[in-house]
Amino acid sequence: MTTTLWITAVIVAITLGITIWAARQTRTTVQFYAAGRKIKGWQNGLAIAGDYMSAASFLGIAGLIAFNGYDGFMYSVGWLVAYLTVLLLIAEPIRNTGKYTMADVLAYRMSAGPVRSAAAISTLAVSGFYMIAQMVGAGSVLHLLVPGFSFKWAVVIVGILMIGYVVLGGMIATTWVQIVKATLLMAGAILLSILVLSHFGFSPLRFFDAIAKVIDPKSKLNFTQPGILYPHGKHVFLGPLTLDKSTIENVSLGMALIFGTAGLPHILMRFYTVPTARAARHSVGWAMGLIGAFYVMTTFLGFGAAVLVGKAKIGNTNLAAPKLAEFLGGGPNSFGGELLLGFISAVAFATILAVVAGLTLAASSAFAHDFWMNVVRGGKESESEQVTVARIAAVGVGIIAVLVAINLPTANAAVLVAVAFAVASSGNLPVILFTLFWKRFNTVGAVCGLIGGTAVSIFLVLIGPGLATVPAAHPAFALSNPGIVSIPLGFIFAIVGTYVGEALGGDRRAVAMYPEIEVRSQTGVGAEPSSVVEERIPAVV
Amino acid sequence: METRNRGQGSVSSAPVGTESATARASKWEALANSPEFRQLITAKRNFIIPATIFFLVYYFALPLGNGLAPKLMNTKIIGNINLAYLFALSEFVMAWILAAIYIRRANRVFDPLAAAVRRLAARMGVGA
Questions:
Q1: Domain range for residue B60?
Q2: Fewer CB within 10 Å: N-end or C-end of chain B?
Q3: Is residue B6 part of a domain?
Q4: At what angle do helices A245-260 and A413-423 cross, to 10 degrees?
Q5: Total number of domains constituting chain B
Q6: Chain A neighbours among B 3-22 (CB < 8 Å)?
Q7: Residue A273: predicted pLDDT
Q8: What is the interface pTM, i.e. ipTM, of the complex?
Q9: CA–CA gap between residue A229 and residue A215 (Å, rounded)
Q10: Is the minimum CB–CB distance between A32 and chain B shorter than 8 Å?
């Protein structure tokens, strides 16, 4: 296991080097939150891919496919197609109208106090659940791979490193850590895929013949067939309808992925780091190429682990990819096995660090920029004070996340991520879309949509079957994926809120500002420029 | 540069109802109603709305097909590779192609139209 530690140490040293370099260039708010808006399109594409391919996708997807076959692959499909929503509807308008956070776009039309507070709550909810999922994953993986490491120490180390990246290097460090990580992850996935295929004479047909021989004992389906993770036949009632549960779960999952990605604050924030809307568009193109290639390769990682290693020897779902690497290198205790296991584990660790850093930055900017600066201080705060508050917020967010994660060693990482996607798709996305495209939308509608969508999706997951370690026989809410109910409700809250707002006397500013946000979002008139040569403000650190 | 008072800052400091805010809003409204801007919006709408409907239908056809027609989706096409897997794989190709078409269209058609609106805005003194 020392190989793992050495490779991890080298990767951590590289990222710390980047952070120290970035710290020297991080003096102003636009540098701290948005890397001076000077990141190139392809670089941002790599960073988006780095932000997105979290522990959940690398370790989680491989495990889901290794244990459930085809149904696991449905996650891979949804995670890529989701970027069409981002590309067609969200990326460019966000770049054109916002400054640092999701709430900037909403506050263009709406009353700043209420919408920024509500958006800060939903951002903290999404980023918090997502972050805790990553840290719990990091803790358990590190603990299992390096038995000398206790779960608590693993979480604490991840926490200290991520606070370091964000506090010292802000968005510049976070971006470059993502780029390094995305490159390593792609390299690891390509290497494992080639090695898997080499076991089948590089013939996809022979590979699939082997997959078709893996049978799920419960459903008697083979691994190329849908219906293992979400079995057919169980019916749920949605109003007067009786439908196949498998279908509803898969459609509901798809809805959360397709509409949730465009509402993830840490992804939206990435579009502020590029100079123009055109660069934002190109960065989504790059990200889609990389993310798609990676998720196609989950075929080899996941099914490969199922065929070559097998469910029994994998044990823990999160360990499918590392165990596959160990097998491909030559098996346990062989030199090649140790080396490959070390490399893949180190890549997984780097993945978690990078994603957590991006989430910390999103959460701390929601607090510092939206809540502290614009609500508490009424928008009157100096540059250096704002950066200082953001740094303090990042430390605070990091410490809270560590404390929560330490106390949740058995939490199901996939469920926590599902909550994050549910909140992003039901709370954030309807409000962003209506702000950009619906003239009558107003402050009451925005607050109702954000708070209502966030609350209902958290509530449905809590009463659903997912959270309990031993699933209840008849949970109050039958679906593990609440999207099919919570997303329409999120839109309904926003619409009803808007009519209530009109009945209460209306929101003249929200309506009067619509032509302005419409023109700005679609054309980039008056969009925030990249920072020109900086005024020399003394470094805070 | 970033301390320049654009967008939210200047807006929130000028409550609606005062003369300057009304004048400001009417300038933006004029820009929003200009033929240049309407042309951009029409061009974008004609592409983005059908494209969005297309990819949503294409995407949700997969889980619906898997759930409602499992026999059909389990049809083996090449060796043990079934329709369900090939359909899933085609989702990736669909996403890449649609993204490429959109990016090309945006670079060649939408960007020049948006630039025309920005020039008009500069002439009208809006947005600076």
A1: 35-124
A2: C
A3: no
A4: 60
A5: 1
A6: 3, 6-9, 11-12, 15-17, 21
A7: 92
A8: 0.91
A9: 13
A10: no
